[in-house]
Design a protein that fits this description.
The structure holds two protein chains of two kinds. By secondary structure, chain A is mainly beta. Chain A is built from no helices and 13 strands. The relative contact order of chain A is 0.33. In chain B, a hairpin with a 4-residue loop joins strand 5 (about 60-65) and strand 6. Classes of the chains: A mainly beta, B mainly beta.
């Protein structure tokens, strides 16, 4: 897939102002599922990018991992990615890292086939200064899932060792994304 | 591109209150964000309920860093979501992200990130086992009140 408040002194419903946070594109997976979701031709007119998602896959497990590749014109499949991780399981906490990877390995962000029906993983990804050609690119995610008795909270950072502007972002997992999985790409403008 | 991150409502307390509620939330956005800057009279958890659901339909997993160690635990089959872990009378911040709140197909998941100047930092990953669209959100301390001056802002994010 490509592409009335109660009993309060001061309260109000507000008129919508112009903002610098804009929706660029959204992909919602259809009934046939999808092996990946990719945003292409991302314009360089923003300062930062944010992706908000819900996700579930066909993996025979309660959870699945989210893999992210970025690039210019097409995604980079070289060993130019690194990640750090802080996570919680509901009973323990841990940390880890990976270097020289072919993607950002962001673990346990998604639910999968044996999780309770209708439960999806959630998360927000930030990719900073994505169009700056003078620096390597960094991303981060806060996400995970709760499945009423199991679940994860996952904080990850990511480094892509390239000064190229990012025009493509591709999401995969260990198995296919299921229907209703949803990735929404937003741009944040600088002053 | 249209603006897509919009304030919907803000509540600032002129006197202490045992809860606040955002009600009649329209379904015209994709996600909701609540930003809380607050203090409370008694230490404990901040709680959340959707659509006045008092059933045992909530669960959570949390990660806490208290300045010397990190820990995690969870609650299952709870009668409310948990959003924060607060000291009494200290200034607190909490941001709640609620995903796909108006769809009627999936259960609703949301996470929080909170800071307490006394206790540390904490995130809760929550699940509400309901496919109902969220139209009302109640925020309350598990005991005591939100103090006067506490502020709660609801935002809507609209995807293309």
């Amino acid at each position: 897939v490509t592409s009335p408040l109660l009993g309060i002194l001061a309260s109000s419903y507000l008129a919508a102002p112009a903002t610098s946070y804009e929706s660029i594109a959204t992909v919602t997976v259809g009934s046939g599922g999808a092996s990946n979701v990719e945003f292409t031709s991302i314009p360089a007119t923003y300062k930062h990018l944010e992706i908000r998602f819900i996700g579930r896959t066909t993996r025979s497990d309660t959870i699945d991992d989210l893999f992210v590749q970025v690039g210019n014109g097409s995604v980079d499949t070289g060993s130019n990615y690194a990640s750090h991780r802080l996570y919680a399981t509901g009973s323990s906490v841990g940390a880890g890292s990976s270097t020289n990877q072919t993607q950002w390995n962001w673990y346990n962000e998604l639910t999968a086939a044996t999780a309770s029906a209708s439960v999806f993983g959630i998360g927000v990804i930030s990719i900073l200064d994505y169009a700056d050609t003078n620096k390597y690119k960094t991303g981060r995610i806060l996400g995970g899932n709760d499945n009423n008795g199991s679940g994860y909270i996952e904080y990850h950072s990511g480094l892509w060792r390239s000064t190229s502007a990012i025009t493509n972002i591709k999401f995969t997992a260990n198995n296919n994304f299921v229907q209703y999985t949803h990735f929404a790409l937003y741009g944040i403008k600088g002053a | 591109m249209p603006a897509t991150y919009e304030p919907i409502a803000t509540t600032t307390l002129g006197s202490a209150a045992s809860s606040i509620t955002f009600s009649s939330i329209s379904g015209s956005y994709t996600d909701l964000v609540i930003i809380m800057s607050y203090s409370r009279s008694v230490s404990g958890n901040g709680l959340l309920r959707f659509n006045s659901d008092t059933g045992s339909n909530y669960s959570n997993t949390y990660l806490l860093g208290d300045g010397s160690s990190a820990s995690s635990s969870r609650g299952s089959n709870q009668t409310n979501g948990i959003i924060s872990y607060d000291s009494a009378s200290l200034q607190e911040t909490c941001i709640i992200n609620i995903f796909n709140y108006s769809n009627t197909t999936t259960y609703k998941s949301f996470y929080t990130r909170g800071n307490d100047t006394g206790l540390g930092v904490i995130s809760y990953m929550n699940l509400w086992r309901s496919t109902s669209a969220i139209t009302d959100i109640e925020l309350r301390p598990n005991s005591g009140n939100w103090n006067s001056g506490s502020m709660f802002t609801l935002f809507g994010i609209k995807a293309a």
